[in-house]
Design goal:
mainly alpha
């Protein structure tokens, strides 16, 4: 979901466009640029992690 150097090399044909620049790391870190997920998808993924964490906490507390 979050683009990186490998993703850019695989998705751009021109060698010039395949270069990864420091600025792209910054904008990828804040969810801009080539981000492949919508805010709703990220919210759903976060919710899934929280539910899984809650489920694991309950398992360990009851055992």
């Amino acid at each position: 979901m979050v683009p990186n150097q490998e993703w850019k090399r695989n998705n751009f044909k021109s060698k010039e466009n395949q270069n990864w620049y420091l600025g792209e790391t910054v904008i990828a870190g804040i969810g801009q640029g080539y981000m492949l997920a919508t805010p709703m998808q990220l919210a759903y993924a976060n919710l899934s992690l929280q539910i899984e964490d809650l489920h694991l906490n309950l398992i360990f507390k009851t055992n």
